[in-house]
Amino acid sequence: MRNKRGKPVEQPTAVIVEDEVLFAQALTAFLEDLGYQVLATADSEEGAVQVVCERRPDVVLMDLKLLDGDGVGAAIMIRETFKVPIIFCTSYAADGAIQLAVESLGNAALIGKPFDEAELAALLANAVKTQPRDGTLGDLRRS
After folding, report:
1. What pLDDT digit, counting tens, does each position of 89-102 carry?
2. What CATH number has the domain bearing residue 85?
């Protein structure tokens, strides 16, 4: 990617954590169309923690229901070592308890499935814009 002046721009990176293979593939294609480099996908809580901590993406797109756990549990473990912005993409977005759990994580957002592409694109752009490259905690709320 290049900016308006023709200089190289660092491509933002992402990890997708989703247990439904077809949906993970669709998310991968969507993010790549937006210009993101998808570093890896994971389908379990343990796999999510491992991949995110090893690859250190700019943003994580995570489902709540995973093969052997849940996305909030994975996020809590990830946050012990890495302060990456996390966008939860789930069918349970309207659940008050889930909203509180995501809010308590800080630097996290919640979007429902099926998602609005423009809304998800805006959340991703804001996450990357506010995320310092040193892994410290930014603020994911929309500006």
Report:
1. 988 888 889 999 99
2. 3.40.50.2300
Q: Does residue 86 belong to any structural domain of this protein?
A: yes
The number of distinct structural domains making up the chain is: 1
What is the structure's pLDDT at 94?
Answer: 86
pTM of the entire structure?
Answer: 0.84
Give, as one character, the DSSP assignment of residue 105. H
User: First CA to last CA across the chain, in angstroms?
Assistant: 24
The average confidence (pLDDT) of the chain is 86
Q: What is the pLDDT of residues 64-90, one digit of tens each?
A: 999 989 999 999 999 988 889 999 998
CA distance linking residue 97 with residue 138, whole number of Å: 23
Q: Is 96 left (phi over 0), alpha (psi -120 to 50) or beta?
A: alpha
Burial annotation 15-39 (CB, 10 A radius, 16+ → b, else e): bbbbbeeeebeebbebbeeeebebb
Q: Supply the range of the domain harboring residue 91.
A: 13-130
Tokens 């995570």 sit on residue: 62
